[in-house]
Sequence to fold (109 residues):
Amino acid sequence: MRRFRRGEFLWRPGEPFSAVFYIDSGLVRSAVEGKRDRRTNSWHGPGTMYPVVHSEPFALESSITAEAVTDVGALEFTNDAVLSAIRRNPDFAVATIDFYSRYVINKGI
Fold:
C-alpha cells in the first residue's frame, strides 16, 4: 500500500512509469504534458487500475503524469507483476480486458 498526499505525483513527471496502481481511496488526475501546458485526460478514483499495464514502451509514456488531487491510498504493483498475473490467470486477463474496455467506452473514445 502506498500513500500519496494531495499534490504528489504517483511517478516522477517526465519519466516512464514502471508501476501499476489500484486506487483504493482518493482521486488522481491524469494529464498529458505538452510543450506549453498540462491537459487533463482522465480521473481515477477507488476501484481504478492505472496506468494501463503494457508490454512495450510507447512514445507518449514520458508525457503522462498522475497527480493526487486528494490524499490517495493505492496498492502498487510492478508492471511486470501484473503482466505475469495476466499470463498465468485467464480469468484475471479477461477481467483486466473488461475493465479497460469499460474505461475506454466510458471515456467516449
